[in-house]
Amino acid sequence: MAEPIPVPKPTAEVLVNDYVRSVYNWMCIGLALTGFVAFYVSTHEAILRLVFSNSLIFFGLIVAELAMVFAIAGMVNRMSATTATALFVIYSTLNGVVLSSIFLAYTRASIFSTFFICAATFLACSIYGWITKRDLTSLGGFLFMGLIGIVIASVVNLFIRSSAMSMIVSYIGVFVFVGLTAYDTQKIKNMALAQPAGLDGAVIRKGAILGALSLYLDFINLFLMLLRIFGQSRD
What we know:
This protein is mainly alpha-helical.
């Protein structure tokens, strides 16, 4: 009897590429879902009225989104891969409902043009984060402080309603999320390289979802900052 032909194990390069591809695939799925839901809701006045005329529903969606982000980021190791994936998909859907408001504030032409600007910027930063030999770890702490500053300034501006402050926050936000995109890309690359051979598929899926969430948030926030700068008001 002929001996069975041994199946070659995938090389480290193949494993890394598969992992990174999974991260970007899930990120793109999340963005596509958010975009589709946002556009769909924007074309249905009844849904818009239900969400944005009822503060309880609107803020309930915001709280639910935050809860899902913290759940995925903080408890992904304690949940199943199916649960992590479902939470990411649900979060992307709810975020689409909330972001449908941009179609009420800005023209569709400026939204689509800003999206392509954002996509090109994100791609360039992600490529830089992947190929650079510079360790961006120290940059992460600085960018996180910048992110906290953006959140605080945005909350303050809800009360003072300064257009100048809003624009300043937007420009700073662009630089922060450009940096975070490169930083998160490098972190995902390092995670992929550190994966031991034969790692359970469910663990890899959860890692891919966590990485996809990071890049998804970078893209969405970069897009919103750019939209404040380049978007044309419907008024």
